[in-house]
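Researcher: Please predict.
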Amino acid sequence: MHASSPLTVDKPKRLAWRQPAVLWVILAVIPLVAVIAFAVLQPVKVRPRIGLAPGYAFTDQNGEQLTSEDMRGKLVMYDFTYTNCAAPCLQTAAAMHDVQALAKRMDTAGLLVELVTISFDPEHDSSEQLRRHAAAIGADTDNWHFVTGAADRLKNVIGGGFGVFYEPDGAGGFTFDPTMVLVDGNGIIRAIYERTLPDMQTIERDLNLVVTEVRNSEGPGKLVYEAAHLFLCYPGS
């Protein structure tokens, strides 16, 4: 007399089965939507992590040793040349000078910016010659270092590590690709400017991108930046 019909018994069971299934679908879709939105909208831009910069130990313009470990925790702009490079040889010294001036007026959130010019002509570019060259181009050597070392080590670091081409031209000079390389405080190459000199707007943008990433590298912000690297959220050239 009081027994329920099959319909009144089965209906709640079917609803009870469907509710957790719908919930699981929603939970699965939300991350997917978030991933797609992040990949499409790219709310955060980063400079790519191109590769590990080479380690080195060279001699600077003061006859003192400068190593890649001295640059840890700092942003470093490198260029590669020789002091006898004269017109029509394309020098990067003017661009490096502009980078030094730019770094002084930028808000780098306390992150130090260093410059390192590596000479691949150790036969002529002694510490004294590097010091004269630095003075001639008006470099502030408080954070701009001029270094060189043994020829075989230079080839390994410049050619093998940084991927910069150079070779003697048979007339006492060198043929080379004018190149500047930005390396972050973890020793990771973040930008390569080669063959044509970069404009300061591009360099300022790239420095700001790396500085902002470092500033937000702790806590939840780190996950956002790792996602930006995962989805290749790079700025346009």
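Model: The radius of gyration is 27 Å.
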